[in-house]
Amino acid sequence: MSDNDIDALIDLMARLPGLGPRSARRAVLHLIRKRALLLTPLADVMQQVAITARECLNCGNVGTTEICDICASEKRATGELCVVEDVSDLWAMERAGVFAGRYHVLGGTLSALDGVGPEDLSIPRLVDRVASEAISEVILALNATVDGQTTAHYIADQLEGQVKLSSLAQGVPVGGELDYLDEGTISAALNARKQL
Amino acid sequence: MSDNDIDALIDLMARLPGLGPRSARRAVLHLIRKRALLLTPLADVMQQVAITARECLNCGNVGTTEICDICASEKRATGELCVVEDVSDLWAMERAGVFAGRYHVLGGTLSALDGVGPEDLSIPRLVDRVASEAISEVILALNATVDGQTTAHYIADQLEGQVKLSSLAQGVPVGGELDYLDEGTISAALNARKQL
């Protein structure tokens, strides 16, 4: 059996999302085999990120500066504010590369079951931002789940009359086949059909 | 979008087996959120393992000492030598906790297609160990794959007449249902049936 440090490494790796005990063991053996190429650089950059990573004070994005690159960029001051549940959703929007405005990360969704109320998310801060920044439109890019849509409705209620509100369109995903789509998506796509 | 250190961390994490770009991003966000509990300890122990991890000079197990705990233990000097393909197989045998002898890690299997010959594995070293150590039995615990079984046959040829040889039994896995087993396994189990 392996040694204490190696066991400790396996235990910690197994706590990452997407890795279990078996894949953690595989990953650790891989790391030890690729010591110079992977293990040492990974340890170094983790050390670095542990020191520097922080949430943007403005939008909640994760970066290494007090105000993130997006919030700091003059080019992104379009007046459009895209509200997302999580930093991973912000990154997904950025990968699509089609939104030129700024973001607001809620940090989750409202959930009566889990006892998550508006004050547990950054909804009060969103209302403040809409009042104090020059926001022309708030785009609700929440996940198309029950909790996501409940949260979107709540935010829409809070901001009604103060700013233009919109949400992402629902419909057939690009490349999607009707046969593989659920009834809800087909129904949403039919209701929102576009005239040619 | 995230910063340079964070991007570098995502890129490195995505090179681990079992993680792709998406799960690497999820893992990194998780790490940043659990900085004190997970990210810092993980960075520290990786740093440590990068320095101390090494292969046992005797058997090829991975540990932090020149000779691994198993090889160094007087209690394990039973004369039984268990031959496995990989360190992960050695660890799997140890988890089962039923083998009290020592191991020999081959470092792979013979493969004509990939150009892996006996000298690329630790087969010559295995022949040496059988000649020089007080080995009473060599147990071939190779995977039940074509390459694993080819390698087992080759080793059996090399060691024939010098030592008692055995291999793991093939049959129905514990908890296994016949309906879900392949024909090869059922056939092996039938051929190796035990009289009650």
UniProtKB/TrEMBL annotation, chains A, B:
Chain's role: May play a role in DNA repair. It seems to be involved in an RecBC-independent recombinational process of DNA repair. It may act with RecF and RecO.
Protein family membership: Belongs to the RecR family.
Keyword Membrane applies: no
GO biological process, one term: DNA recombination
MF (Gene Ontology): DNA binding; zinc ion binding
Domain Toprim, residue spans: 79-173
Superkingdom of source: Bacteria
Keywords assigned: DNA damage, DNA recombination, DNA repair, Metal-binding, Zinc, Zinc-finger
Stored InterPro entries: DNA_Rcmb_RecR, Rcmb_RecR, Rcmb_RecR_Znf, TOPRIM_dom, TOPRIM_RecR
Protein's organism: Shimia abyssi
Span of zinc fingers (C4-type): 56-71
Protein's name according to its UniProt entry: Recombination protein RecR
Protein's gene: recR
